[in-house]
Amino acid sequence: MLVARIRRNAGALGPFRVTEDNKTLSRNMNAWNNVANVIFLESPAGVGYSYSNTSSDYDLSGDERTADDAYVFLVKWLERFPEYKDRAFYISGESYAGHYVPELAATILLHNTYNNRTVINLQGILVGNPYLDANRNIKGAVDYFWTHAVMSDEVYANITKNCDFDNLNGTFTDAACMGAAVVFDSGYIDGYNIYAPVCIDAPNGMYYPAGYLPGYDPCSYYPTDAYLNDPAVQIAFHARPTKWSGCA
């Protein structure tokens, strides 16, 4: 079985962690490569260390282009390793992969109908916590915060009264909705896990976790960012000198 998992970053599943000295690595004992072969494909072109020799390519970035490029990669990989061509193929992902996964699947199915092309044996797709559209994402967050005592009854009632979450074009342009939403202050919490510790930025420039949770470091992006921007690391990766960021 072949599985292509689409994530926004490899911080949760990669083989290494960057230690607090910003220079050395430690093993991730729960890494996926302990039980499977893993290839990381930076997509769309321009993220991470990837780049295009044609600058106009960046102006064409989008979900459709991402699916087309990922399809080309998969076909060329299967042509390079033909022993995997008949394997069952699944695509899974979370967050914005709610767009990437079905669009790549649709691209594969379309190309599979043509003659004389590599057929990818797509058997199914999976999406977890998918980002489908902004309105439903925000509506889900509002409901979650309210049902978990992060948002008051009054603020929740005002938001649900003034925000039309069924109107995909109206929520962010409606003054009453925006006025009701800006009143809400979630405080300093992790929106992805309100019970997890957060990273505290101290006035002296230092940082530290707000609490201890085994196996979880909310400040891990600091050493990761420093490591991947280290010129020596970029040279070792044979990457072009670049300003790397987790989200750009």
Automatic annotation (TrEMBL):
UniProt keyword rRNA processing present: no
GO molecular function: serine-type carboxypeptidase activity
Entries under InterPro entries matching the protein: AB_hydrolase_fold, Peptidase_S10, Ser_caboxypep_ser_AS
Keywords: Carboxypeptidase, Hydrolase, Protease
Keyword Protease carried by entry: yes
Annotated GO CC locations: vacuole
UniProt-listed Enzyme Commission number(s): 3.4.16.-
PROSITE patterns cross-referenced by the UniProt entry: CARBOXYPEPT_SER_SER
Biological processes per GO annotation: proteolysis
Domain of life: Eukaryota
Leading EC class: hydrolase
Residues annotated as signal peptide: none
Database matches in PANTHER family: CARBOXYPEPTIDASE, SERINE PROTEASE FAMILY S10 SERINE CARBOXYPEPTIDASE
Family: Belongs to the peptidase S10 family.
Name used for this protein in its record: Carboxypeptidase
UniProt source species: Aegilops tauschii subsp. strangulata (Goatgrass)
Organismal lineage: Eukaryota, Viridiplantae, Streptophyta, Embryophyta, Tracheophyta
